[in-house]
Amino acid sequence: MGGVLIGFAIIGFVIFVGWLLARLGVVNQDGRLVLNKTSFFAASPALLFTVLAEADVRLLFSGVLAVAALGFLGVFVVYAVVARIWFTKDPARIALAGTASGYSNVNNIGLPVAIYVIGDAQFVGPMLLLQLLVLAPLLLASLDIMTAGRASLVGILTQPFRNPMLIGGALGAIVSALDIQVPQPVLAPLEILGGAAVPLMLLAFGISLRGDRPLQPGTGRKEIALAVALKSLVLPAFVFVLARFVFQLDDQLVYACTIMGALPTAQNIYQYALRYDRATVISRDIVLLTTVLSLPVMLVIAALLKP
């Protein structure tokens, strides 16, 4: 338990430094974008390549991936049914908030959590592949249909393969699967570059926390509350049941699946909402509130399940 608290303290301190820099006016939201782009296009792909190149490729296509997929599907269906009956008939709004109920922040928070809380960065691999190869294209395709031709079919289908993090992760997985030994002169600079990924992500995330107050009247508070409850509470419990009793994974994998299930909603959902001009405030508030709740939920999970 002490190691978990230290891990969260490390993550929290770097996030706090980012928030403090924004609070003091040292950096603004443009600075956050620079940090995000540097991490997204350079440091994170290098980190994922070096991690997955040495990972057990069987983990990428194991019960961990199935647990993540079924967990997402379960909470999405619950949200869609409840929202359609009681809250709204707007399909794009339901699609965005329903996806937000299960689409996790693997990039900004998942990697640091996997490294410092679970103790192994390779656990981001299955969820990364699921979200970038399957869930994101499906959501974009659905929104494209609902909002009448905002993007081409070719653009939707090729979008995952233009994602540098996916490219880095996929190349690493191929190296692992083929048991290729990467020469040290090639690996060393990638390890140095990858070492910058987590600090850059956490600083950028801390900067982003300085923003508007959530849950303003008339913003769809009931929809937000439902999505936040599903993401922060129901999804971790559901994936625990799947991992422990359905797939009967070992204790370390059950712990990893449950922790990863407790990750907050990814900021990608807010970006998609802005792009299609649907459910923007709802998406923003879900991201923010699940981020705040994720820490205490993960601490409880760690106290109960850490091997």
TrEMBL record:
UniProt-listed Pfam families: Mem_trans (PF03547)
Keyword Transport: yes
Compartments, record wording: Cell membrane
InterPro entries to which the protein is assigned, alphabetical: Mem_transp_PIN-like, Na+/solute_symporter_sf
Membrane topology note: Multi-pass membrane protein
Source species: Agrococcus terreus
Chief location: membrane
Transmembrane segments: 6-22, 34-53, 59-82, 94-117, 123-143, 164-180, 192-212, 224-247, 253-274, 286-305
Cell membrane among keywords: yes
Keywords noted in UniProt: Cell membrane, Membrane, Transmembrane, Transmembrane helix, Transport
Similarity remark: Belongs to the auxin efflux carrier (TC 2.A.69) family.
Name of the protein this chain belongs to: Permease
